[in-house]
Amino acid sequence: MNDTTRATARELISKTRARITPARVDILAALLGAQRPLSHLDIQELLAPGLDRVTVYRVLDWLTAENLAHKLSGDDRVWRFSAAKAPHHHAHFHCQQCGRFYCLEDVKTDLPVALPKSFIADSVEITVKGICADCKSA
Amino acid sequence: MNDTTRATARELISKTRARITPARVDILAALLGAQRPLSHLDIQELLAPGLDRVTVYRVLDWLTAENLAHKLSGDDRVWRFSAAKAPHHHAHFHCQQCGRFYCLEDVKTDLPVALPKSFIADSVEITVKGICADCKSA
DNA sequence: CAGAGCAATGCAATAAGGTTGCGTGACAAT
DNA sequence: ATTGTCACGCAACCTTATTGCATTGCTCTG
């Protein structure tokens, strides 16, 4: 979480015309700097303690509402968030052992899907489940 | 939940060499007869009351372990289960309004995915999110 | 520059969904 | 019939996330 990242975060937040608070900058910077989607717990551990659980949840929700972050659901009942740098059209990998998520930038989710009549698609989520390299070698 | 479905359920369970109990038969039959993945709550409502919450959870876990059912995660923190009639290689639709899941039999999940080195894929889950026909017309 | 107004935070309590421990009852094999 | 194991029910508990409410602190107007 270097200064450049924090500056980028601050700039992105300023575009929303909402308040630029330390919590928002810290959390968005954490997401921007991460190589993978982070859970609420990941973020709490990454950031200095002293930031309330609820605040983290609220900031994450706010970021999602402002389209600065994307919320995705794993099969462990935990939300993961990733910074919405570009339109978020790629798949994810979920390691069943360590629980970490990885972005599969190469696998696009904008594939054409044949839906039943009158169904409206909003977004497509693709999750590959398996074992990641770290866990395999361990 | 007709008798044929129950007979099929009983037969599938007998193949596991485990005990054929009413709870197992009822729940598997419910899954077999359903057009869509069912949540734990769906099942409880479908079945006559008197069956314990925990028993339902345990039977569902057991069915999953025996590969008679598949567990899938929505973004509402609720497990959904579907009978594993055939290998379960199709996508699902999740209505963001009513929360129901639908099977998209036509959309296959056995697409080739390019994984990073040393990653091992186990299964692929594709979920389309949007509004279903029922909710749209309402 | 003071003060009003509102957005953001922290703390505590609560909700929802799922899981664990343990005693009891039922079935199967001997 | 006896014994061992498997399944069930009940109660308690855990985790993750959300809500209510009081307080803080920024911002903007006058």
Verbal overview:
- Two copies of one chain form a homodimer.
- In chain A, a hairpin with a 5-residue loop joins strand 4 (90-95) and strand 5 (101-108).
- Chain A is of the alpha+beta class and 138 residues long.
- The mean pLDDT of chain A is 90.
- Chain A has a three-stranded antiparallel sheet with strand order 1-3-2.
- Chain A has two domains: 3-83, Orthogonal Bundle (Arc Repressor Mutant, subunit A), CATH 1.10.10; 90-137, 2-Layer Sandwich (Dna Ligase, domain 1), CATH 3.30.1490.
- The two termini of chain A are 28 Å apart.
- In chain A, helix 1 packs across helix 2 and helix 2 crosses helix 4 (53-65).
- The first copy, chain A, has helices at residues 3-14, 22-33, 40-46, 53-65, 133-137; strands spanning 38-39, 69-73, 79-83, 90-95, 101-108, 120-131.
- The interface between A and B is large, with 36 and 36 residues.
- The first copy, chain A, binds a DNA duplex (30 and 30 nucleotides) through residues 18-19, 21, 23-24, 40-41, 51-55, 57-59, 62, 77-79.
Task: Provide the descriptors you would attach to this structure in a database record.
homodimer, 138 residues, alpha+beta, Arc Repressor Mutant, subunit A, Dna Ligase, domain 1, 2 domains, three-stranded antiparallel sheet, three-stranded mixed sheet, 5 helices, globular, DNA-binding
What does the secondary structure layout of this molecule look like, with pairings?
The structure is a homodimer of 138-residue chains.
Chain A: H1 3-14, H2 22-33, E1 38-39, H3 40-46, H4 53-65, E2 69-73, E3 79-83, E4 90-95, E5 101-108, E6 120-131, H5 133-137
Helix pairs in contact in A: 1-2, 2-4
Chain A binds a DNA duplex (30 and 30 nucleotides) through residues 18-19, 21, 23-24, 40-41, 51-55, 57-59, 62, 77-79.
